[in-house]
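User: Hey, quick favor. My workstation is busy. Could you predict this chain's structure for me?
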Amino acid sequence: MKSFSKLCLTLLPAIVITAFGCNTGTGPKYADGAVDIRTASLAFAVGDSLVVNITNLSAHNVFYNLCPVFLEERVEGTWLSRGSPSDGFSQSGCEAIAMWLLPGESTVLKRRIPMSVPLGTYRIRFENYRIDGVPLRPTYHLSNTFVIQ
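Assistant: No problem, here it is.
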């Protein structure tokens, strides 16, 4: 019986932490929400129109902005930004306009793939997805990977 009590006292804190989570107050706070960012195709050619579908998978209204948007290439395991304001892709100096996606709602982004980008594996990254002023997890700011061939 003593062993069982010892086991319960050892396991109880682990069960409580697992069931209720443990927030130490350190690290970034993220909103409880999900956005799916998916390209219309898994392969594109330089100069093609890149179509990106953005869907709110959460139960909350999601604040978003399509500006700036980054085209990132995977090079030796690292993501490097490609495209620039001068080629019209990233529009990093563009005006931030607040928009909302209601639960289940989708929107579409279309951008021309710059002629200057090298062939390779890419993703799209956005910066501004929030619920009540709190950012979504960084993974919800990224599209699936795709190739430019």
